[in-house]
């Protein structure tokens, strides 16, 4: 287990000593499940995976090669999350089956609920030994869908018989959370912010725009709370009134010693840039704006764009992140990051981190799956010994 006070070099090269079990392991549905030590262990394994992949070396895996069955149930569109989960499964030698748009290409079109689908792909009904999956990776348009799937699985396996675990992984659930993206984001901050001490020490993160509907930002803020007691973390929210994070998240930050403040004026974003170590850009969640709900008007959105000339306001070592995709729809301008910055991002400018952040999804999800399957290796060995 890694100490939350160790600098980043101590996170590397020690994945072989790890044994990690977070709350309600092996499910992953929200960031509150993890301790700071859990997240640091996952990040350490992620960066070891990243180094091996970059050098075309064998992966520093904890699990044994085994054809685990991984199912992807994506009720919402995805590019990077789906692709990197599939890449992770392939990297570990798993079988995978992706049900993309189940509402069109599965029995959901016949009226089957997503929870009946969990039963079909999972281990319910007393026939756990004939289960169809070892892991369900779920993206859903309802809040807490993966948590409910985990509850179904836990109830099905609670029959006093020795059973292998079946993991439910949240790949994004509506406006609620996206925990694996938060782990990607944390790994990026750890890797990019080489400040000579812990990467989260004296960290200031600037969040502009529509912060009300972003599951990615929700998860990242919850993760900051786990480190708030030991590291000085500050958050600046630049948004119009009424578009900040939910009250329960703000209360969570306050309880966990993460300082935050709101800045509502139109010029506050550019004025706050010199203070930030990380500028975390975020698109307007158009698909989550219901009829009749307020959204940031297009004219006002220009105040929260990171324009190319804003690079001059960043302090040394600061960088810009974005979970992607960037809204580049010409019918709905402007994009939240100036297109003039894309060549710099593609050529690895240290200030423009969003493509490196995106590519880190593969090693992070490979590391997470490897940790879970290593635990299932132990379970399988114990069951066979009975």
Summarize the SSE layout with pairings.
Blueprint: H1 36-54, E1 69-74, H2 80-91, E2 95-100, H3 102-105, H4 114-121, E3 135-140, H5 145-157, E4 167-173, H6 179-192, E5 203-208, H7 215-227, E6 233-238, H8 247-255, E7 259-263, H9 268-272, E8 278-280, H10 298-301, E9 319-321, H11 342-346, H12 354-359, H13 361-384
Parallel strand pairs: 1-2, 1-3, 3-4, 5-6, 5-8, 6-7, 8-9
Helix pairs in contact: 1-6, 1-13, 2-13, 6-7, 7-8
Notes on the structure:
By secondary structure, the protein is α/β, with parallel strands linked by helices. It folds into 2 domains: 8-177 and 361-384, Rossmann fold; 181-359, Aspartate/ornithine carbamoyltransferase (Rossmann fold), CATH 3.40.50.1370. The protein has 13 helices and 9 strands. The strands form 2 sheets. The chain has a 5-stranded parallel beta sheet with strand order 7-6-5-8-9. A 4-stranded parallel beta sheet has the order 2-1-3-4, with helices on both faces. The longest helix is centred in the last third of the chain and has 24 residues, at 361-384. It is globular, with a radius of gyration of 21 Å. The chain starts with 35 loop residues before the first helix and ends with a helix. Residues 1-10 and 12-17 have low confidence and may be disordered.
CATH level-two architecture of the largest domain = 3-Layer(aba) Sandwich
* Average of pLDDT: 87
Number of helices: 13
The figure for the number of domains is 2
Low-confidence stretches: 1-10, 12-17
Determine the structural class based on helices, strands and strand pairing: alpha/beta
Strand content: 5-15%
How much helix, percentage-wise, in residues? 25-40%
Shape summary: globular
In total, the number of strands is 9
Task: Tell me the CATH topology of the largest domain.
Answer: Rossmann fold
Radius of gyration: 21 Å
* Straight-line distance between termini: 29 Å
Order of helices and strands: HEHEHHEHEHEHEHEHEHEHHH
